[in-house]
Amino acid sequence: MKMSEPKRLHPIAAVVNGFRQLKEMIIPFLILVVFGSKGTNENLFYWIGSIGIVIFIFLFGILSWYRFTYRVEQGELRIEYGLIVRKKRYIPFERIQSLDVSEGIFQRLFGLVKVKVETAGSGGMGLQDGEAVLTAVTRQEAQEIHDYLVSIKKARKRDMDAQQDDEETETKEEILYKITTAELLLLASTSGGVGVVISAVLAFVSQLEEFIPYERIFAGIESFAANGIIFITFAVFAVFLLAWIISVFGTMLKYANFTVRKVDNDLVITRGLLEKRQFTIPLNRIQAVRITENLIRQPIGYASAYLESAGGSGLDQESSKVILLPIIKKSRIPDLLEPHLSDYRFRVNFVPAPKRAYSRYLFRSWMAVVPIIIALTWFIWPWGALSLSLLAVNALWAYLKYRDAGWSIEGDMLTFRFRGIVKNTVYMRKNKVQAFSVKESFFQRKKNLATVMATVKSGHGGSGGQVFDIEKTDAKEMYQWYSYGTDMDL
Q1: Are 257 and 326 in contact (CB under 8 A)?
Q2: 3-state secondary structure of 165
Q3: Dist CA 449 CA 65 (whole Å)
Q4: pTM for the model
Q5: For 109-128, what is each residue's pLDDT tens digit?
């Protein structure tokens, strides 16, 4: 390929662009097609209108494809695009941080890949804000762009290192992690995707009211339920089992062949069976490391590890919060990551929340359920009184949140531990923390407690964490650590 000659993407990019636009308009489209025609005599008008919208979207995709060209010239990736106003974007290769390569179903049918270019300015909402996407190019073209980028990086590294020879620097590659079959099965079976599957099926079925006689079906079920309670129980169990199987199958397809490699100063993550994806995360763009433990994995000692990255955009949060270890024994994480993420230490001693803080966790937890209990008890007495059991459940949940709250400062690293639905442990370097705040309410002031929050850059926005109701003196210590000795004024 002559890289300096303007090239168009493969024509399948027009179809991919069309489906992407259709996906973004799916909500107003469903409102027009499904809800707009109910109770009217204008069904034909709505169907013609919806077909016209689909045709327009795909015509737009074809025109966008035709007007999009790219080339590599004078050390830059040069892209020209735009239907009415012709726009040009020149991206110097020395500003490119990473190339993320993926293969969707459409791309794989034609032996193509999608290449996402992330630069030092990535993090916006579109092409003009620091990134570019080549939707459908050949593997050879993607490899040539990658090799060109590698050669630029090596040349820059030689120039910056006065002790380097003019000889070609050898690429160092090492496999950090590769998911095993047992881990993939455990990941899929504990992913908690059952609710997502059931919600998606219910949302789809609810749109078929005109074609499915729900009233007759429900009437039949209601009359059968009186004498068929065992059958109903079995049917509900079968639905959840089927949803779980679908969730397991989908997760296994998504994370099959999950591999993490360290290539020079980058982490390269590849995964997927039907849709193959590759993420490249430069080590210097890592903002924080997050360890999560859900309710199923925590009792058996397993966790997942994520990287909060300065890359990604508002439309692609997956590139800003990248899963590094999908599932692994938590005890293995320090030995696995510390040799490669040398700025982080994963064996830290946490300072817990004080005992007097538990009443605050309990109060917040009960405040969420007390109105529900009152309503249920009032409207469906006496059965509604059973909802009082929620107080005991929430008391246990409050205790778990209180027990998991903690913080640590070791050198230049701040660590927060807290629980929502999932237990989170966030490791943040001091120079990556963009904002640190301490809050103290009237009730906290009475107990000498405070809430701390730290934010790091992650994609288009921020991430990090907060710990509720710690000692006020501890909050002051953290504030002084972050602000180089400045006193906290509360």
Answers
A1: no
A2: coil
A3: 58
A4: 0.72
A5: 888 888 888 776 554 444 44
